[in-house]
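chain below, 188 aa
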Amino acid sequence: MAAKILIVTGDAAESLEVLYPYQRLREEGYDVHIAAPARKKLQFVVHDFEPGFDTYTEKPGYTWPSDLAFAEVDPGQYVALVIPGGRAPEYLRGDPELRKILKSFFDADKPVAQICHGPLLTAAVGALAGRRVTSYPALEIDMQSAGATFQDAEAVVDGTLVSARAWPDHSRWMREFLTVLRAKAPVT
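prediction:
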């Protein structure tokens, strides 16, 4: 049986930040499940950069079904966690079931990959204090408020935590995460 990896997300997640790790980790041989507040078809978004805009734009993206609800997740069944960005982390950080899931991964020192606005979730459970991370650059103050040292880099590895700024950093992010996974939770 293949080792399982959990992706936690919801509506308004960045399409590429969910689907790239989903496909890349499956390609590597992991069994990947997507959990959301409920079992449903999720509506992702596309964030892009337009000349003259002070920040990114948002357009409708792909839809994709979640495999299970947060309340159905048994974190002990998973070897690693992926936390995509987009707007989903803004409202998901208040979900008590999700906070239990996140805390269990950090308590067990399992590999965690986070990208873009995903670190808002790890900050919500106090898992960033004393760590080095990156995120979408506009979150630098949020990362510092959570007790982390912010680094503006494609990928930052701090133990089993691997973070990236946004979807343009996917290649480096997944390369670093796979290095951690192969050491801590190889495909079986």
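The mean pLDDT is 97. The longest strand covers residues 57-65.
thats it, cya
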